[in-house]
């Protein structure tokens, strides 16, 4: 693949990620429950991937045997890296903005690289030109993310329909500021966990190299886990229906298009 195609692919991936944040935020503004949204997202992804995993790997016999120990490990990866962290991220996004969400998401590769260095899976030689370039890029990326994430800016009125969000009262403003800070914290925490999950996919794929089945199993386990989380957090079953057309579109977009993007298909 030439450099032009590589750069075009990267731009396409970033556009997909931006769409994920914007459409998900719009779904929450429409009134869809965050935990229910995450459950539907994982369930649709699992249903979509299951036939491919069956016909391309299981039926052809290319998938290695799945032991109980390995199943438990995949289940654990699905919990902290998919069900848990995406629920955290969604709650944070509900409190903050799509701009902040998109900005914070960009530090996933940076945090993943730092964790890989800590786990001695990558090296960083600060005395070399290559190492200095890496370090400079990391600092610039973090600086840009902090600037974009912490600048709250004006509300997007097209996505805001709740009258309280248009109030200029002091009490409401203070509450929004508190919610904003909580949203940034939750999204940052989830991104760190997400980066850890990304780093751990390498060793997991060495142990179980069936990429498609691995992805499908994690999505399936995450669906079950997200269902339990939603059941605990959302007792009102009237809230289990999607609030509108944008919510349905967001579920399909995040479950299908984003799930199939090159960087996420490495394991999920």
From TrEMBL:
GO terms for cellular component: membrane. GO terms for molecular function: transmembrane transporter activity. It is found in: Membrane. It comes from the Eukaryota. SUPFAM superfamilies: Multidrug resistance efflux transporter EmrE. InterPro entries: EamA_dom, EmrE-like, WAT1-related. The chain crosses the membrane at residues 7-27, 39-58, 70-91, 103-119, 131-151, 180-200, 239-258. Residues 8-133 form the EamA domain. It is a multi-pass membrane protein. Keywords: Membrane, Transmembrane, Transmembrane helix. PANTHER family: WAT1-RELATED PROTEIN. Belongs to the drug/metabolite transporter (DMT) superfamily. Plant drug/metabolite exporter (P-DME) (TC 2.A.7.4) family. This is WAT1-related protein. It comes from Triticum turgidum subsp. durum. The lineage of its organism: Eukaryota, Viridiplantae, Streptophyta, Embryophyta, Tracheophyta.
């Amino acid at each position: 693949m030439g450099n032009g195609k590589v750069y075009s692919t990267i731009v396409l991936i970033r556009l997909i990620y931006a769409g994920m944040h914007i459409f998900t935020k719009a779904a929450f503004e429409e009134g869809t429950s965050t935990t229910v949204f995450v459950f539907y997202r994982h369930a649709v992804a699992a249903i979509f991937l299951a036939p491919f995993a069956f016909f391309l790997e299981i039926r052809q016999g290319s998938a290695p045997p799945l032991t109980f120990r390995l199943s438990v490990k995949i289940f654990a990866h699905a919990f902290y890296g998919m069900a848990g962290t995406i629920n955290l991220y969604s709650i944070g996004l509900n409190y903050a903005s799509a701009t902040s969400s998109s900005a914070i998401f960009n530090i996933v590769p940076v945090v993943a690289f730092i964790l890989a260095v800590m786990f001695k899976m990558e090296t960083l030689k600060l005395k070399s030109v290559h190492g200095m370039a890496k370090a400079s890029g990391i600092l610039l990326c973090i600086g840009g993310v902090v600037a974009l994430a912490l600048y709250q800016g004006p509300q997007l009125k097209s996505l805001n329909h709740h009258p309280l969000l248009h109030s200029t009262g002091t009490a409401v403003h203070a509450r929004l500021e508190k919610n904003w800070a909580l949203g940034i914290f939750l999204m940052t925490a989830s991104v760190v966990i997400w980066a850890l999950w990304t780093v751990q996919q390498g060793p997991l794929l060495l142990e179980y190299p069936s990429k498609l089945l691995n992805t499908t199993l994690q999505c399936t386990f995450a669906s079950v886990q997200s269902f339990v989380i939603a059941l605990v957090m959302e007792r009102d079953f009237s809230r289990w229906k999607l609030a509108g057309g944008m919510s349905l579109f967001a579920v399909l977009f995040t479950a299908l298009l984003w799930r199939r993007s090159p960087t996420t298909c490495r394991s999920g």
